[in-house]
Write a structure and sequence with these properties.
mainly alpha
Length: about 350
């Protein structure tokens, strides 16, 4: 059994488990009345989505973790010999990525629970959410350091510069920014899921280039599980991933990306997430300083909605951008022949 055949099997299991879980989860969420509350600030036609079940992210969380266990069992049985220190560290990196993803998913679940059960539209208070994000992000950086990533360089491949101690607070901000950027991308049926399938496939391929095949398996499992979820989430969505799902995906993307210690590739692969978040930042700055808005509405996918783009068109265009960015990232990685320390 080859490495890529194991990845394909794991991804198919993740896809199937996630998709099939929807048959049980969606009726259960409806029974509990865990539906989405649509605020008046959004596009008016979103009101038709009122009551659509949230917390659908449990589908791909379950699917990806289940498939990951299977994938590593096959990997260990057919491809691994004796565990060297390097292999142990790689496996610990994978476990760290999984725990970090789940930790952010739990934070998202708390947010969804407050919205659905407590009927408080804004969910967790911002200061509480930020506190946990700081703690989780600091723990991720600490664990990666203990596993051997002691470099304090910002790696842009063609340019590297050492920040010393300041690397860690800066990366703390990067982790929080990017995980929340993934969350902001979840605003149109199928958008966050479609983009994430592409980004996780791309980052998984890059991990293999960087001699981190164990991390690749996790990435492929997440991609496969999200594809299964999309069967229920493409327009018109029968379920939303909620913050439970989007925060899990944000955590997965950031954690896997950081194992590469290549910041240029993180930016390239995650370009759609980053643009979505920057559109919010620019909108707020512009409105507070000039009283004018740059976009009709932010995040930017809502701007295109208000310009009469259909949800299908938004998903297609944003996914195409992700595909092009992924191709550029993989080409760049091969060109610079990266070698992990």
């Amino acid at each position: 059994m080859t490495f890529w055949s194991i990845n394909i099997i794991a991804a198919l299991v993740a896809f199937s488990a996630s998709a099939l879980f929807g048959f049980a989860l969606i009726p259960f969420l409806k029974k509990l009345n865990f539906g989405q509350t649509i605020l008046d600030v959004g596009p008016k036609w979103h009101k038709s989505k009122q009551g659509t079940p949230i917390m659908g992210g449990f589908m791909f969380i379950f699917g990806s973790l289940l498939a990951c266990c299977l994938g590593y069992s096959l990997y260990k049985k057919y491809l691994l010999g004796d565990l060297t220190d390097a292999l142990r560290n790689n496996l610990l990196r994978v476990f760290t990525c999984m725990v970090f993803s789940v930790a952010f998913g739990i934070l998202g679940f708390a947010d969804d629970y407050i919205k659905a059960v407590k009927k408080r539209n804004l969910g967790l208070r911002a200061k509480h959410k930020l506190l946990f994000q700081i703690l989780f992000s600091a723990a991720l950086l600490k664990i990666l350091y203990e596993l051997g990533d002691k470099s304090t360089e910002i790696n842009l491949m063609f340019l590297k510069f050492d920040l010393g101690f300041f690397y860690y607070p800066i990366m703390l901000l990067v982790i929080i920014f990017v995980t929340n950027a993934v969350n902001l991308t979840d605003g149109v049926d199928g958008l966050c899921g479609s983009v994430t399938v592409i980004t996780m496939l791309a980052i998984g391929t890059l991990c293999n280039i960087y001699s981190l095949p164990e991390v690749t398996i996790y990435s492929m499992c997440v991609a496969g599980a999200v594809m299964g979820f999309l069967l229920w989430n493409l327009h018109p969505a029968k379920v939303f991933m909620g913050d439970t799902g989007s925060m899990f995906l944000g955590g997965a993307f950031v954690a896997v990306s950081l194992t590469l210690h290549n910041h240029l590739l993180l930016i390239l692969v995650g370009i759609v997430y980053i643009v979505e978040a920057l559109s919010v930042v620019l909108q707020v700055i512009s409105f507070k300083t000039t009283g004018k808005r740059i976009f009709k509405m932010s995040p930017i996918h809502h701007h295109f909605e208000l310009n009469k783009w259909s949800e299908y068109k938004i998903v297609a265009v944003f996914s195409l951008i992700s595909i092009l960015a992924a191709i550029i990232a993989i080409h760049t990685a091969y060109r610079f022949m990266p070698i992990i320390d």
